[in-house]
Amino acid sequence: MQTSDALVGLECYECGDRVDPADADQRCPECGGALDPAYDYEQIDLDRETLDARPFDSQWRYRELLPFDPDTAASLDEGGTPLVEGPSLAGELGVGELYLKDDGRNPTGSTADRGLSVAVTAAREHGAGDVALASTGDGGQSAAAYAARAGLDAHAFLPSRSPFTNKAMVNVHDGDMTVVGGRIGDALDAAGEEIEAEGWHDLGWFETPYRREGVKTALFEIVEQLAWDVPDAVVVPTGSGVVAVGVHKAATELERLGLIEDAPAIYVAQAAGCAPIVDAWEDGRDEPEPVEYPDTICGGIEVPDPPAGSLVLDAVAETDGGAVAVEDPAILDSAIAVAANEGIEVGASAAAAVAGAWELSREGVFDETDSVVVLNTGAGSKSDDVLRSHLMGQGI
Ligand SMILES: [Zn+2]
Predict the structure, then answer these.
(1) Which of 50, 92, 153, 311 has its Cα between 20 and 30 A from that of 42?
(2) Which ranges constitute the DSSP H helices of 16-137?
């Protein structure tokens, strides 16, 4: 198995054991905890000038901080997405600058592409023939695309409520799709049984150690796009927690390498109908409790029992950030407002972060000099029906 020079092992979040990447491709062999790629930061020689000189063309330009070399990557040139200024939104929020990191412009239209590029690369390095996962939608579409790229067979388990685009594109990429009645928990159960029975390589959020490694690059890019001027706040729509954990790890690594002095405050935004992380944050708990009856139109982030809730809460606490829950109508209103006023298309689930930024502003969290980045994790056109229906409900 070929890994990058700086990768020194996979460290278990639970028991702290470090294992050789060749010996573990999923969870910790000792205790079943999630594994985290560890690097020898002393060995990494990376400065701003070196990065500035590279083309801004894909996430693999951060090769020193990724577990595999670009020439072995299953890549569709993911990453390198625009950071688009939103002056009208900045004015409404009363902040100095507001940017949308538009990850809807990834190969399959979501942030999932960053993580699945790395995770599918790992699967191929481990000699897997079949990869599988349960997903709320975007991850399934993305996994099917990257498996096709890598010459692997993909099996995606999506709950029946997943967007039509996601289901259709799994098929178009020649993936094997199982639509599971119910919600993400049902899809996770169905996927788990089949994965175990068939011995498939699991690409689930924290089953593979590698998805957040790809997500990290979104924050690397944001900081570079702002000419190394770290934003005061990054607002992240949050379901499973992979994105928030990835952004936090990226900030920690940039600090450790001396490329930035302070991490941005990380704010996680959830839909009020399924906000286990926000509830835990507000109650001062370090572990979320599963939501018994999740109910939000934002299916992409409807994850009632987030697999890395405690890591997300750490990210928020360590960066002096926060957590905010927003009702569905406000989320859909914000997606429509950004499309109408700024021309930027934001997915219905990702719009939780836009609405979350609005709410944080109302709570007085930001001041007029702050620079705020909202991560758009999914293309608006994938939720065209949900957004259009919301307009219909208003008689438009
Ligand atoms: Zn362990």
Answers:
(1) 311
(2) 48-52, 87-93, 112-125
Cα(18) to centroid(ligand 1), Å: 8
- CA diameter of the chain: 60
- CA nearest to 185, candidates 204, 171, 170, 199: 204
pLDDT digits (tens, 9 = 90+) for 71-96: 999 999 999 999 999 999 999 999 99
What percentage of the chain has pLDDT greater than the value 90? 98
Q: How far is it, in rounded angstroms, from Cα 86 to Cα 101? A: 10
Which domains does the chain carry?
Answer: 83-110+209-393 (3.40.50.1100), 112-202 (3.40.50.1100)
Evaluated on CA atoms 253, 203, 147, 123, the torsion sign reads positive
Question: What's residue 81's pLDDT?
Answer: 98
- pLDDT tens digits, residue range 25-45? 999 999 999 999 999 999 999
pLDDT of residue 298: 95
**Using CA atoms, how far apart are residues 396 and 106, in angstroms rounded to an integer?**
31
CA of 90 to the centre of ligand 1 (A): 44
Going by C-alpha positions, the residue among 269, 255, 251 that lies closest to residue 215 is 251
Centre of ligand 1 to C-alpha 38, Å, is 14
Q: Ligand 1 centre and the CA of 301: distance in Å?
A: 27
Q: How far is the centre of ligand 1, averaged over its atoms, from the C-alpha of 115 (Å)?
A: 22
DSSP state, 273? G
CB 325 within 8 A of CB 291: no
3-state SS, residue 169:
helix
